[in-house]
Every structure is written in structure tokens, then in C-alpha cells.
Specification:
This protein has 231 residues and is α+β, with helices and mostly antiparallel strands. Helices cover 37% and strands 20% of the residues. The two termini are 26 Å apart. The strands form 2 sheets. It has a 5-stranded mixed beta sheet. A 3-stranded antiparallel beta sheet has the order 7-6-8, with no helix packed on it. Strand 6 and strand 7 form a beta hairpin. The protein folds into 2 domains: 67 residues, Nucleic acid-binding proteins (OB fold (Dihydrolipoamide Acetyltransferase, E2P), Beta Barrel); 157 residues, de novo design (two linked rop proteins).
């Protein structure tokens, strides 16, 4: 479940991300009533097996069975909650009605990691954003200069060209990052948690800032939920 909207006195419109059919919007009738048969199964961050009645404009939820109840663990931790909110907003922006199994599996895995507190929420969010953007075709490069291909540990990151640049290619106004930040960014993109979990707070903050700026640049209208993420 990506998000919900109130409809009338007791209903909700729920936006789902499915593995095989992309986004689906459907009405959950009576879900806001205390005696609703769906209850908390149709809340954001939950993973469920859902059946629909097909409608002309909107489908109607006819059945929902919980597969993974990540919501309860996530909402009790503010840092995890704000990270998860940014994730589902990103997923909604990067997917549509076409099947996107890679985006689906990535989101479910990130929510599972958040709920289980496997790593810091900041690292999970940054890793998710980098990977989701890569799947969408905007993979950043933290290894070689994106302009001339020169190998090395480059200190300048240019959002507009999607990665680090060497000293010779560095434009005015490029963001400067340290070697530790560059290493962490590469680890978060690759899912190398041994390196990521050892990063100190200063490096984590620097990497999070770069990732947030990169995501905002590529996602139309930006991500409203990122401004609430704990830093």
C-alpha cells in the first residue's frame, strides 16, 4: 500500500503497487468503520494479497489478506516512519500502470529492512533511493569521472551529469565530497552493508544530502516527504 485518501464518510481510495500490474487504485468500502473486515490490512507500508472487483473508473477491494505487516513496526519509530514515507512517495512517482517487478521487490525489501531495524533508517532510505533511481534509468556513478572516464577517488559530484567528475572536468559550483562519503555512496548503491554500517555520523549526513539532492533533481516536482526525514 502506497497511500490512502478519504472518500465519503467511511470509505478510502487506496493506491497499491503490485508486482505484475504496476499501480492500482481502488476503493476500500467501509474501511474507516471500527467493524471493517479489512481493518489495518490496507494501511500504508503493509503488504497484502488483494482481490478486486473491476470497475469503470476505480476498482473495488473485495478481499485482502495480510502477507507482511510492516506498518506497525515502522510507525512506532519516527525516523523509520519518515524514511518509509519518502520511499512510498518515490515508488509512486517512479512507477505507473505498467508492470515494474524490480521497483516492487526493491520497495518491499526496503520496508522489510526498516521494520526489522536491520540498518539505520537514513542508510536504508539512501540505498533505496539510489537503487530506485538506477532502475528508472538514472544510475549515478561514484567510481570514474562521468565526463572523461578517468578512474580514481574524485571529490566533485555533479547532480546534473549523474556522478563524480575529476579535477580537470570539475565545473564551478560542483558539490565537493570526501573520500569516505564517496565510499559510502558506492556502498549504499551496491548494497554493501558492511561498509555502510561502519560509516560515522558526519559521513552519513553528507551522503544523505547528496542522495536527497540527486533524487529531487530527477523526480518531477521533488519529494515533499524528504523535508520531514530526520537528519
Amino acid at each position: 500500500m502506497l497511500r490512502t485518501h478519504k472518500l465519503g464518510e467511511a470509505d478510502r481510495i487506496v493506491t497499491f503497487l503490485s508486482k505484475s500490474h504496476g499501480q492500482v487504485r481502488a476503493v476500500a468500502k467501509g474501511v474507516r468503520r471500527t467493524a471493517s473486515k479489512f481493518g489495518a490490512r490496507l494501511e500504508p507500508f503493509m503488504v497484502a494479497d488483494v482481490q478486486f472487483y473491476e470497475g469503470r473508473n476505480l476498482d473495488t477491494v473485495s478481499q485482502a489478506e495480510t502477507l507482511s505487516a510492516y506498518g506497525a513496526s515502522i510507525v512506532e519509530d519516527y525516523a523509520a516512519y519518515t524514511a518509509a514515507t519518502a520511499m512510498v512517495e518515490t515508488a509512486e512517482r517512479l512507477t505507473g500502470e505498467m508492470a515494474t517487478p524490480q521497483q516492487y521487490l526493491l520497495l518491499v525489501g526496503a520496508l522489510r529492512s526498516l521494520a526489522a531495524k536491520e540498518h539505520s533508517p537514513q542508510h536504508i532510505l539512501s540505498s533505496y533511493l539510489l537503487r530506485a533511481l538506477s532502475i528508472a534509468g538514472w544510475a549515478p556513478n561514484f567510481v570514474e569521472c562521468v565526463r572523461c572516464g578517468k578512474q580514481g577517488s574524485h571529490r566533485a559530484f555533479v547532480i546534473q551529469v549523474g556522478g563524480v567528475v575529476c579535477e580537470e572536468c570539475k565545473p564551478l559550483g560542483a558539490a565537493l565530497i570526501g573520500a569516505e562519503t564517496s565510499l559510502l555512496l558506492g556502498a549504499l548503491l551496491a548494497g554493501d552493508w558492511q561498509i555502510a554500517d561502519e560509516a560515522d555520523e558526519k559521513t552519513t549526513q553528507a551522503a544523505s544530502g547528496i542522495v536527497a539532492a540527486y533524487a529531487q533533481w530527477h523526480i518531477e516536482r521533488g519529494l515533499k516527504s524528504l523535508q520531514h526525514v530526520e537528519h
